[in-house]
Amino acid sequence: METAAISAELDKNFHLFWDNYPFPVMLVRKDRTIVALNKVATALGCLPGTRCVDIGKKEDHCGCLANQALQEQEAKRVVAYQGTYAMVLDSYWIPLAGVDDLYLHFSADITEYAAERMFPAKECSEAKGSCSCSCSES
Fold first, then answer.
1. Over 50: is that where the pLDDT of 128 sits?
2. What is the pLDDT of residue 109?
3. In the chain, where are the structural domains located?
4. Which residues contact 101 (CB under 8 A, 6 or more apart)?
5. pLDDT at residue 57 in the model
6. Stated pTM of the model
7. Confidence label for 39 from pLDDT (cuts 50, 70 and 90)
C-alpha cells in the first residue's frame, strides 16, 4: 500500500489542529486516498494510504459531497441519520485553501441533540392511540 505524502508542515498543522478533536478527522486527496488522520480515526483502524470510500459499506458514501466541495472550493455540510452507525452525523467536507486536491472530512455525532424528525420512523407495537410514534390507524 503506497501512502500519499504531504509536506511535513501540512502534516504538523493537521495534527496540531485535529489530534484532540473528539471525532474522526481525515485529510483526503481528490482520489479519496487518506493522507493524514487524527488520533480518533487512527484508533478506529483507519490507515493512511487507503481510500476512504473503501471503509464501511458502499451505501455509506452515497451522500459524499467531496467532489462538490473541491469543484466549488467551498465547505459542504450534511446533517443526517446514518443507519450503519445508528447516529445522526453532522458531516463536513472542507477544501484546503490554496490546495486543489485536498480536503478535510469529518463528522460529529450529534445523536443526543438531534430532533426526533432526524430519525427513521419507528415501528409501533403498542396499543392503538397510546404510542408516541407515527402509527397508522387501522
1. no
2. 96
3. 8-116
4. 29, 30, 31, 70
5. 82
6. 0.81
7. very high
pLDDT mean over 62-78: 95
54, 91 Cβ separation under 8 angstroms: no
Topology of domain 8-116, CATH: Beta-Lactamase (3.30.450)
Among residues 72, 82, 70, the alpha carbon closest in space to that of 107 is found at: 82
Question: What value, to the nearest 5°, has the Cα angle with vertex 130 and ends 126 and 136?
Answer: 70
- Torsions phi, psi for 137 (to 5 deg): -75, 130
| 3-state class (DSSP) for residue 61 | helix
Say if residues 112 and 130 touch (Cβ distance below 8 Å): no
Helix H or strand E segment including 78? strand 76-82
Give the separation between CA 81 and CA 51, rounded to whole angstroms. 23
